[in-house]
Amino acid sequence: FFMRICSMSAHVPGSWRLLYFDAPNRGEQVRMLFFLSGTAFHDVRLAYPKGLDPYKKAAMGDDSPLLGTDLCPAVTAPDGRHCVETAEIMRFVGQRVGLAPKADSPEDHRAMEVCLLAQACMNECFYALLKPMVVKHIFANELLGVLSRCSSLILGREAVYMKAPADKLASVLEAAEAALIASGGPYVCGPSLSYADISLFAILREVLEFQCFDQPALLAPHPKLKALLETLEAKAQPWIEQRVRKHQLGITSTVEYFAATNTPFPWSRKRKTELTG
Question: Is the dihedral of CA 150, 156, 160, 163 positive or negative?
Answer without folding.
Answer: negative
